[in-house]
Amino acid sequence: MTDQATTLPGDELAVIRNKGEAPIVPKATSRDRGIGPFKRLALRSAIVIDGTGAPPIGPVDIIVENGRIVSIKKVVGYGYGDKAGEPADHEIDCRGKWVTPGFVDCHAHAGVAYHSANGWVPPVDYVYKLWLAHGVTTVREMGSMNGLSWMLDQKQRAADNSIAAPRLLAYAYFPAVNDMVKTIYTPEQGRTWLRQVKERGADGIKFFGAPPAIMEAALDECKTIGLRTGCHHAQMAVSRMNALTTAKWGLTSAEHYYGLPEALFEDRVVQNFPLDYNYTDEYFRFSVSGQMFKQGAEPGSAKWNEVLEQFLEIGFTFVPTFTIYDANRDLMRARQAYWHKEYTWKSMWDYFTPQRGGHGSYWYRWSTQNEIEWKENYRLWMAFINEYKNRGGRVCTGSDSGFIYQIFGFGYVRELELLQEAGFHPLEVIRSATSQGAALCGLQDEIGTIDVGMRADMLVHNHNPLTDFKLLYGTGAMRFNDATNAVEWHRGLKFTIKDGIIYDTEELLADVRDLVKASWESDVPEKYASKDAAAP
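Structure for Amidohydrolase, as requested:
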């Protein structure tokens, strides 16, 4: 058993969960998919959606050298352009295809150790391949829940492209809340800890709250040393500081919806909790949180506008992760999603199933009333987020998959659909998923748009993604062919390109199907069978 006093900063939560042993989620150590990078890659005659919000343009030839875009040239007609003038080592015929920037998942987890309560935990290869198969080329890993040591190893391997994985940003969990792991008790302890994780290589910090003096000092220190921050304003902490409070202290982004309703309260400070409420009971935690927005200011009211303007003045960012609470509106839909049969890992499925003690496994008495309340909660939540975007505020796309019947990759695509439901034009959805996410991560000069000088993170689509985001799901979408009088499944994403390496999405999905099948048959592949394989 590892002594907590000797634990490296950023590894505290993982050490407790792992009981001091090797990480529960097996690492990725090699790359078995993807071709390239090539000295010179050409995407010929593509229709480009560049990620800025501009409409599609094409056909154009996109030339990549050593992982970066070096030329974007309009093509006359739908031919191959001047091949002799711009030869390439590898070419992709993009006639009749669309190209977008790679997607940025601004709130994600590289595997979930919680699933070990229900059996064999999926290796992180399963997670990475689902992300890549759904176009996610950059991930803001919020919390480094497998340990910062684990996460920094995977971040470096992803940067080297020695594993098949998106670009990874490591945000460390700030251990200052009683209901998780708490090792920080004073502002100075917090500042020291932050300097240590920064020195170790963390990109940012994931907060769940903290005593106000510690939180304010921590956010000040993060600004000083250059750590970006995101906060899930947990219900055990939010009565002392809502999302507007922490935004004023320098928080970079608010995750989910917690803390926003409280900022809109006019006639109360504390949510109207039932008197028999217990936060440890997951049913209470999630059912009652669906009642929050209706206790705040009405859309269009003076208070509503005042809060909007204060967030805008700060230049704040929201990462709503609508997708992760979507099952609350319609549990049956979430449970019966097309993809569960072939893509949902057995221990994940068993974990999602109602059980006491499982985070997000609270369905043991979900009711019609709960769903009605959550539908109203979404109406108000979406109205705020859409208006914030309309007034110039930054809204980014995040999934938080691995809980509540949402699985990796598929949950991200669902978030695109929900942003559109909130009122975003599909071009604004793509902008949120690409250039806005890149800016939140501080990578706007590297990724998020298709332009000369940018990294070659691009997606090649067989169908125009603006017309229907359902085509991005790994299962595709059901369509009827009048010529054959038969139902077909159309899938849009053909290739995911990250740093100039080309991943065939069907190959990635086939790998995942094989892994998932093995999980249901309890046939652990040899490379994942030994816990030593997961050791740092």
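Residues 78-85, 530-536 have pLDDT under 50 and may be disordered.
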